Amino acid sequence: MSDWILIIFLFSPGGDYMDKYTVEFANKANCEAVRKSLPALDNGLARHKGLCVTKDHWLGKKPMKGVPLD
């Protein structure tokens, strides 16, 4: 069962939004560990930024405080 979602946002080198994708995790610790490693994926063509949210937040069932719904 996956309870956490890592939303990975891709930005151009100039900062323009390009795309997003998601990865599911069983717990927050694993999600945060991968989120912290995202800058290592930056390759000059895209910058990666991430946000860990609960699956209930992602599905719109129980939004997290201070985190906008995507």
Structural features, described:
The two termini are 22 Å apart. 21% of the residues lie in helices and 36% in strands. It has one domain. The protein contains two helices and three strands. The chain has a three-stranded antiparallel beta sheet. The longest helix has 10 residues. The chain has 70 residues and is α+β, with helices and mostly antiparallel strands. The chain is globular and about 35 Å long.
Q: How confident overall, as mean pLDDT? A: 93
Helicity range: 10-25%
Largest sheet, strands/sense/barrel: 3 strands, antiparallel
Spatially, the strands of the biggest sheet line up as 2-1-3
CA-based gyration radius:
13 Å
Helix and strand sequence: EEHEH
Q: Structural class, from helix and strand content?
A: alpha+beta
Poorly predicted runs: none
- N/C terminus separation: 22 Å
- How many separate domains? 1
Write down the oligomeric state: single chain
Quantity of strands, as a count: 3
As a percent range, the share of strand residues is 35-45%
With helices defined by DSSP (H or I, 4 residues minimum), what is the helix count?
Answer: 2
- The coarse overall form would be globular
